[in-house]
Amino acid sequence: MATFSHLNTILSPTVLILFITLPLSKAVLDAHFYDQKCPVAEHIISETVRNASIYDPKVPARILRMFFHDCFLRGCDASVLLDSTQGSKAEKDGPPNISLRAFYVVDDAKAKLEMACPNTVSCADIIAIAARDVVTMLGGPYWNVLKGRKDGRVSKANETINLPAPSFNVTQLSQSFARRGLGLKDLVALSGGHTLGFSHCSSFEARVRNFSALHEVDPNINIEFAEKLRKKCLDPKRDHNAGEFLDSTSSTFDNDYYQRVMAGKGVFGSDQALYGDFRTRWIVESFAKDEKLFFREFAASMVKLGNVGVIEDGEVRVKCRVVN
């Protein structure tokens, strides 16, 4: 998960109309939803994710980011998986989602599930289970994923403006999370997902080059770390793959992210803001000191996020990229 969003946009009054509130769903989800209907579901998904990660180590971070980006728009309805059509540009082609990858992993799991249990396991549940599996696989916590989601039929690229930007401060972040029924603890815990992943220069270059009229570099960033980032992004227009890992242990799910933020080495402005604001600073410090606490709170917040905006009148797609 490189970030919640790579979009840094000034919001106009017309854009503000796009903001929607996604309360926690009243739909009843159940950890044992597939026990009778498709008992092999979680095994198939876990095996598919694990095999894909062997060939591409970036798969775990990409799957986790996919889950966040799906749930943060229309709720956890797999709308992020839908392909654009001739008359409608879908979420995956919105500016913040252009860098999303690993859709093929979900497609592969879905194809296997359709053979084992036709028309049973939703694409939305596949993403939620896969997100848990990649965290656990890399040393993070395990939690029982609540299941029974339905897949949505609508996906709009222009709604991706609602994804939190990497330049957001805590007030902006907390407002964005609150619209999804998530609090400050959820904000800080879920930001810990940045312990996995990589970011391209476009998401943080403004912090280390021409930051403001008064500062060449963001004054909240460790100066040596800023110089390292500058060297990584000498010519981002030429090298689109240049960037930085979000964590010094980016292939392990741990609490190193919070320790780096405390040291002024948060890659995004939104990361560093968590330590600079008194409302969230103490939570960052708590997670940095106690990894088990972070794991418990991350798992709890993932369950909570997974219940955002769950729809009751959707469908179970046969193919995740198109509606039935």
UniProtKB/TrEMBL annotation:
Which residues does this entry assign to the site Transition state stabilizer? 65
SUPFAM superfamilies to which the protein is assigned, alphabetical: Heme-dependent peroxidases
Q: Residues in domain Plant heme peroxidase family profile?
A: 28-324
Which residues are the signal sequence here?
1-27
Q: Which cofactor does it need?
A: Ca(2+); heme b
- Known EC number: 1.11.1.7
Spell out the family assignment given in the record's similarity comment. Answer: Belongs to the peroxidase family. Ascorbate peroxidase subfamily. Belongs to the peroxidase family. Classical plant (class III) peroxidase subfamily.
Q: Which protein, by its recorded name, is this? A: Peroxidase
Q: What is the lineage of its organism?
A: Eukaryota, Viridiplantae, Streptophyta, Embryophyta, Tracheophyta
